[in-house]
């Protein structure tokens, strides 16, 4: 059965049309190198000055130990200036389909959110695929969280109030981080903020099929990302849940989750299924499916009504979590 595509929200559709070919729908392996060199000023990573929010935050890079027998990793740390007591923290993992980006991507929005709660933000630099395949990226992310928790006092962080957060591939890695921290008895995590997370390497859902060739990060791009991370194992029977959290068979004992996704994007069905599986395991999850939203719509159309609704819902959940 063929499924017709979900229409985009009119405001979001107009924003996407204005971008033209600056944001390709599909990415193939031969496009990875060029995508990493893209220099569109509108998508440039934020500077230290921008992240300081006019002096409200101090910005520093720290190089800390990586996983055993692996290179050190870099953490971008934004700290409220003049804080006189331990702060909550957001441990952030950037997106980019496992193949693109660095620890500044998405940080402007993350620091803006953190400022509402006087929170520290720690953004981890992880090795990208295909140069580094699973488990390299998730082990980098885990090592950064362990270091952050162990050094919470030095960083001015309350170790009992560390939220993990990420978008797209970073959302998938964040979900995997929650599983790994649970299974290894790792740092306690207050909650997990999973924004349009990339969770399932099988890439065979109805939403993946019906949105192929449309919007941002379609089924072809998704196959490129998973293939880079997993090689020939992608879609096969032996994929670890720490690579693709949708493969997990036990979602009990996880921190409270917030999951959001657009109705018109590849990840819709796998994200809804993940929230459902958390509920079925007796866990806590808040799920939002934004009508007519394509992947990453907030970044491309921040003033659209549906983008404002998505941001507000996220803040309401964080208000309750950090209360």
TrEMBL record:
Keywords: Hydrolase. It comes from the Bacteria. GO terms for molecular function: hydrolase activity. InterPro entries: AB_hydrolase_3, AB_hydrolase_fold, GDXG_lipolytic_enzyme. Residues 91-298 form the Alpha/beta hydrolase fold-3 domain. This is Acetyl esterase/lipase.
């Amino acid at each position: 059965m063929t499924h017709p595509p979900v229409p985009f929200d009119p405001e979001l559709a107009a924003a996407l049309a204005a971008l033209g070919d600056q944001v390709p729908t599909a990415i193939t392996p031969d496009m990875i190198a060029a995508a990493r060199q893209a220099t569109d000023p509108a998508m440039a990573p934020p500077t230290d000055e921008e992240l300081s929010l006019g002096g409200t935050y101090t910005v520093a890079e720290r190089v800390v130990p990586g996983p055993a027998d692996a290179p050190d990793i870099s953490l971008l740390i934004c700290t409220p200036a003049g804080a006189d007591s331990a702060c909550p923290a957001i441990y952030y993992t950037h997106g980019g389909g496992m193949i693109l980006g660095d620890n500044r991507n998405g940080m402007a929005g993350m620091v803006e959110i953190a400022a509402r709660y006087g929170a520290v933000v720690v953004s981890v630099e992880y090795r990208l695929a295909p140069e580094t395949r699973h488990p390299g990226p998730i082990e980098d992310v885990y090592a950064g969280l362990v270091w952050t928790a162990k050094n919470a006092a030095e960083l001015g962080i309350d170790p009992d109030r560390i939220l993990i957060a990420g978008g797209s591939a970073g959302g998938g890695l964040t979900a995997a981080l929650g599983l790994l921290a649970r299974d290894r008895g790792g740092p306690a995590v207050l909650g997990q903020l999973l924004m349009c997370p990339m969770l399932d390497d099988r890439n065979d859902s109805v939403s993946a099929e019906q949105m192929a060739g449309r919007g941002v990060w379609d089924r072809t791009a998704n196959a490129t990302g998973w293939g880079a991370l997993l090689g020939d194992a992608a879609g096969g029977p032996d994929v670890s849940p720490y690579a693709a959290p949708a493969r997990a068979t036990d979602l009990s004992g996880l921190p409270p989750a917030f999951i959001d996704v657009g109705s018109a994007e590849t990840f819709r069905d796998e994200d809804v299924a993940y929230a459902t599986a958390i509920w079925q395991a007796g866990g806590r999850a808040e799920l939002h499916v934004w009508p007519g939203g394509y992947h990453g719509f907030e970044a491309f159309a921040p003033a659209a009504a549906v983008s404002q609704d998505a941001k507000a819902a996220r803040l309401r959940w964080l208000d309750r979590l950090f209360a």
